[in-house]
Task: inverse folding
C-alpha cells in the first residue's frame, strides 16, 4: 500500500488506542543525528498516545532507528531486529517499524521485506513526520501483512514535530540535514539527501527555549554544519546563539575541512566562555593521493594549516578527528602519511574506522585490494599512535582546576559521576550529598589515562 500524508493520523491513532495504556520503545543506532531524530520519533509516539517503555518486551510499538554508514552498523541493526521476532510471535498486535538511514537503501528495504516479514514498515530519515500515518495504517491492516511505503517526495524541513529529549541538561539541535559532498566512500548523501538548512529564526527560537528551560549544553548538528546557509552563514548563527544570555556551553558537529573560514575561528575565540574550545575536523587520510580518491577536496597541507590557525586563535582547543584505514589502494606509504598527521596534530581523540564498501558509492567500484591482515595491522598501529597523542593531551590537565558539566551517574556506584570538560574530556568524579547531574562544577584533575581523567570536586566560592 502506498501512502501520502492526507489524514490527521495523530488524532486517529490516539482515538484507536485510547484507554489501552499502550507503550512504545525506540532503539537508536548510529550518530548524534540519529539520536536527535529519535527524539522526534519519541515525540510523535507520545503525541499519538503511546507511553514510553523501558524495554522492548513491554512495548506495543517498537521503532528501530538504524545506521548505514558501515556494513557492521547494518549487521548490528538487523541482528537487533532478529531478536524481536519472538516478541511479535507472542504478541501479533505488536507493531515494529524501521527508520533511519538503512530505510533509505532500496536493497536493504527489499531484504527487510523478504527476510524480516514481521516488520510492518520502514521510513527514511526525511519522512519521520509520516510515522503516525504508518502506525495508523498498520493498526488497520495488521492481519493483512501488507508492507507500507511512502509516496511523498522529500518534503521541506518540518518544524512542527514534537521532541522528547532524554536529557534535561544536554540538547541536540539539528541545524541542517543532508550532505552535498559525495565523499567517494560515503553513503550519507544517498540516504539523507541534499543539504537543507533550517531557518535561523527557528534555530534561535529553539536554542532560546532550551536555555530558558535550564539546558546547560547545546550541540548544533549537521552532516557538515559549516555549509549551513539561510539568511546567515554558520559563523553568524553561532555568534547569534552564543550571544543569548545565560550560562551554557555551545558545541557543533561535524565540520568539513574544505570550509573552515577565518570568520568561524574568530567567532569561536570571541565567545570562548560559551562556544566550547573543541573542534571535530575529520581527516580521513593523511595521504594527498587517497584524499583525492576520497573526493575530500583538501590536501594535508591545507588541513594542517587549519589546525595551526585553530591552535593560534584558541590555544587550549581540543581537536578530534575521524580516520579511515585501508581505503582501496592505500599503500604503506599512504598509511605512513596518516600516522604522520596523527603525530603532528596530537589529536585529543580519534575515531578510526576500517574502510567498508557501501553499495552505490563511487569507492565501492574500486578494487578491494588490501588483505585483512594488513587492515588489522594498520588499525593496531594507528590505535597505538592515537593513544600516545591522547595521553599527552590529557596529561596537560594534571593538577589543573577545570569546569565540568556533570552528565550522569557512573556505574562505579553511589556518589560516582561522569562529567565532561568544555573540551569534551570525560572526567570521573566522586561527591557525596545531592546529585550534581546537570550542574557545572570545578574539579581538580588528579589522574589521567588516554581515555578519561579523575577529578576532585572543588568547593565553590
Ligand atoms: N567506511 C568506513 N568508514 C566510513 N565513514 C564514512 N563512511 C565510511 C565507510 N564507507 C566514517 C568517516 C566519517 C565517519 C562518520 O564515518 O570517517 O567521518
Ligand atoms: Fe559523508 Fe563526506 Fe558528507 Fe561527511 S562530508 S557525510 S563523510 S559525504
Result:
Amino acid at each position: 500500500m502506498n501512502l501520502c500524508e492526507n489524514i490527521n493520523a495523530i488524532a486517529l491513532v490516539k482515538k484507536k488506542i485510547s484507554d489501552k495504556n499502550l507503550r512504545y520503545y525506540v532503539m537508536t543506532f548510529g550518530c548524534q543525528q540519529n539520536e536527535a531524530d529519535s527524539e522526534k520519533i519519541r515525540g510523535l509516539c507520545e503525541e499519538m498516545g503511546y507511553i514510553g517503555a523501558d524495554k522492548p518486551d513491554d512495548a506495543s510499538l517498537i521503532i528501530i532507528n538504524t545506521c548505514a554508514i558501515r556494513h557492521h552498523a547494518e549487521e548490528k541493526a538487523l541482528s537487533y531486529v532478529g531478536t524481536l521476532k519472538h516478541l511479535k510471535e507472542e504478541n501479533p498486535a505488536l507493531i515494529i517499524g524501521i527508520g533511519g538511514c538503512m530505510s533509505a537503501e532500496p536493497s536493504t528495504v527489499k531484504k527487510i521485506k523478504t527476510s524480516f516479514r514481521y516488520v510492518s514498515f520502514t521510513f527514511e530519515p526525511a519522512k519521520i513526520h509520516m510515522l503516525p500515518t504508518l502506525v495508523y495504517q498498520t493498526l488497520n491492516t495488521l492481519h493483512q501483512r501488507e508492507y507500507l511505503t511512502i509516496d511523498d517526495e522529500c518534503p521541506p524541513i518540518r518544524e512542527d514535530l514534537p521532541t522528547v529529549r532524554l536529557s534535561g541538561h544536554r540538547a541536540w539541535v539539528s541545524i541542517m540535514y543532508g550532505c552535498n559532498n559525495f565523499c567517494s566512500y560515503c553513503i550519507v548523501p544517498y540516504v539523507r539527501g541534499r543539504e537543507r538548512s533550517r531557518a535561523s529564526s527557528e534555530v534561535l527560537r529553539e536554542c532560546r527555549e532550551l536555555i530558558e528551560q535550564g539546558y546547560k549544553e547545546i550541540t548544533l548538528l549537521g552532516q557538515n554544519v559549516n555549509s549551513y546557509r539561510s539568511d546567515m552563514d554558520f559563523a553568524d548563527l553561532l555568534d547569534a546563539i552564543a550571544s543569548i544570555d545565560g550560562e551554557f556551553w555551545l558545541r557543533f558537529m561535524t565540520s568539513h575541512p574544505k570550509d573552515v573560514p577565518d570568520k568561524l575561528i574568530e567567532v569561536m575565540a570571541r565567545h570562548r566562555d560559551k562556544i566550547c574550545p573543541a573542534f571535530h575536523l575529520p581527516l580521513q587520510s593523511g595521504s594527498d593521493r587517497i584524499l583525492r580518491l576520497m573526493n575530500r577536496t583538501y590536501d594535508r597541507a591545507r588541513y594542517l594549516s587549519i589546525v595551526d590557525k585553530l591552535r593560534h586563535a584558541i590555544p587550549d582547543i581540543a581537536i578530534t578527528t575521524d580516520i579511515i584505514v585501508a581505503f582501496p589502494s592505500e599503500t604503506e606509504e599512504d598509511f605512513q602519511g596518516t600516522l604522520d598527521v596523527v603525530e603532528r596534530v596530537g589529536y585529543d581523540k580519534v575515531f578510526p574506522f576500517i574502510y567498508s564498501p557501501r553499495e552505490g558509492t563511487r569507492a565501492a567500484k574500486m578494487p578491494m585490494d588490501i588483505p585483512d591482515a594488513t587492515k588489522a595491522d594498520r588499525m593496531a598501529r594507528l590505535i597505538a599512535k592515537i593513544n600516545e597523542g591522547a595521553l599527552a593531551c590529557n596529561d596537560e590537565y594534571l593538577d589543573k582546576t577545570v569546569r565540568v558539566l556533570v552528565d550522569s551517574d557512573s556505574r562505579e556506584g553511589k556518589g560516582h559521576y561522569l562529567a565532561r570538560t568544555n573540551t569534551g574530556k570525560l572526567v570521573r568524579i566522586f561527591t557525596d550529598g545531592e546529585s550534581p547531574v546537570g550542574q557545572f562544577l570545578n574539579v581538580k584533575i588528579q589522574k589521567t589515562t588516554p581515555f578519561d581523567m579523575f577529578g576532585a570536586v572543588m568547593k565553590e566560592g
